[in-house]
Specification:
Layout: H1 4-22, H2 27-40, H3 46-51, H4 59-76, H5 80-91, H6 96-113, H7 116-134, H8 138-153, H9 161-170, H10 174-180, H11 182-199, H12 208-215, H13 226-244, H14 246-249, H15 253-267, H16 272-277, H17 281-299, H18 302-314, H19 318-335, H20 338-355, H21 363-375, H22 384-395, H23 402-430
Length: 432
């Protein structure tokens, strides 16, 4: 990295990251300012920023979010989330920890079939209503759900965007992910529940008055527009089917989400302006800025330098190499978005697997996937789902600060990564 552009890009990225952490200015302003500086110093340009598949804005992510936010915006008008909130609290007998366990399990399971961002978009409105009804702080429940979504998303090919990149490069199937990662992720969800019981123990305050009030409610009365609800659920089911059938249909999730949003707006009586008003525009702007900044690191060769150094350190040692891949991927995915990181590491990992004489389901691929997916839990901007939830929380006047999320995320990431390392050692080396 002798080019001054490389060092300037690092300085801009670290400076912007420091501003986001310090929360001296809004994270959207910091990200867009950092993106502007990357363009101003020539670390990237308009062609790379807006059109490059490798180093530009990931429009698939942006439009996936846009489409799903529009669908969720329509569903919010039906009363469906109020219905689910009342139903879930009744099933948990209004006990806060039972409610959290229910939400964690639902989120993790849904994230295995949907992508984790779509899942949190659907679950978070329910959570906010549950916490409001039970007079509970929303932050612990929202943080727990984000952590569950990233863990659950790691279990399947479609659960987390990095897995799709890995599957494409390695030639892995949906069943490969189920066989190799789903058993571990099921264990990690149980571990997460235990950690949440300890981490958020002060938040589980049972309010008998609130509990009595909500158990007297009839959830069916919460449905405001049955016809719109049926339309919304049919479209949502079609969208979910499109996600699951991606290997067959070859439609990107962003296309499926946009088609679903367009269909729902077309067949319903909801005003388009009302649907667009529900979109988290600041969150989309933050992602665009973040992608451009990371693109500057890619275009100047910074991320390639880091990846090459990792590849050199691994050499041909499978056990130590897989552990290093897991650890490094966990750390780096907590700092930069795991999508461009995996996109950069995938070809390097492919070369490593080939040099080791491994098959498509080589342990190095699983180490990369687990490190990238679990590492996303480490910080508030480590994964797309984290950023989305923080944006929704802020909009609903339940702000979650960078450090408030990260102090819990680091604990969960350390524990789950340690268990993942033990799993890799046992399954692929000790018991192989």
């Amino acid at each position: 990295m002798n080019d001054w552009h490389s060092w300037a890009a690092i300085a801009v990225f670290l400076g912007t990251y420091a501003l986001i952490i310090s929360e001296k200015i809004h994270r959207v302003a910091a990200a867009l300012g950092g993106a502007g500086l990357m363009l101003a110093i020539g670390a990237t340009d308009d062609v790379s920023a807006f059109y490059s598949e490798n180093s530009g804005v990931d429009w698939n992510v942006i439009f996936l979010l846009l489409g799903m936010m529009m669908i969720v915006g329509v569903l919010k008008k039906t009363g469906m989330f109020e219905y689910l909130a009342i139903w879930s609290v009744k099933k948990a007998k209004a006990r806060p920890f039972r409610v959290m366990v229910m939400l964690i399990v639902i989120t993790a399971m849904a994230s295995a079939l949907l992508d984790n961002v779509t899942t949190v978009l659907l679950v978070v409105p329910v959570t906010l209503l549950v916490c409001e009804r039970l007079n509970l702080p929303a932050a612990p429940f929202l943080i727990a759900e984000v952590l569950a979504s990233n863990i659950g998303g790691a279990s399947t090919l479609v659960g987390d965007p990095p897995n799709i990149i890995i599957a494409s490069r390695a030639g892995l199937t949906f069943n490969d992910f189920l066989v190799h990662l789903a058993p571990l992720c099921a264990v990690l969800v149980v571990v997460l529940i235990g950690l949440c019981r300890w981490l958020f123990r002060k938040s589980f305050v049972y309010d008998e008055t609130c509990a009595a009030e909500i158990t007297e409610l009839e959830e069916r009365e919460a449905i405001k527009d049955p016809r719109l609800l049926v339309q919304g659920l049919i479209v949502l089911a079609l969208v979910v089917a499109g996600f699951v059938l991606h290997p067959v249909l070859h439609y990107e999730p962003s296309i499926v989400a946009l088609l679903g949003a367009g269909l729902l707006v077309a067949i319903s009586t909801v005003e388009t302006r009302d649907v667009l008003a529900e979109v988290e525009w600041p969150t989309l702007a933050f992602f665009a800025g973040l992608f451009i900044m990371i693109g500057g690191l890619i275009d100047t060769g910074v991320i390639n330098e880091v990846s090459d150094a990792l590849a050199s350190a691994i050499g041909g040692q499978e056990l130590s190499g897989s552990m290093l891949m897991l650890g490094a991927s966990t750390v780096l995915s907590g700092v930069v978005d795991n999508i461009p990181y995996v996109a950069t590491m995938a070809p390097i990992t492919s070369d490593l697997v080939r040099s080791m004489g491994g098959d498509s389901d080589h342990v190095m691929w699983w180490a990369l996937a687990l490190g990238a997916d679990l590492g996303g839990n480490a910080t508030a901007i480590g994964a797309s789902a984290n950023v989305v939830v923080l944006g929704i929380a802020e909009r609903n006047r339940q702000p979650i600060t960078f450090w408030q999320f990260t102090k819990y995320g680091l604990v969960v990431t350390a524990a789950t990564t340690a268990i993942a390392a033990l799993y890799i050692w046992l399954r692929y080396f000790a018991l192989a």
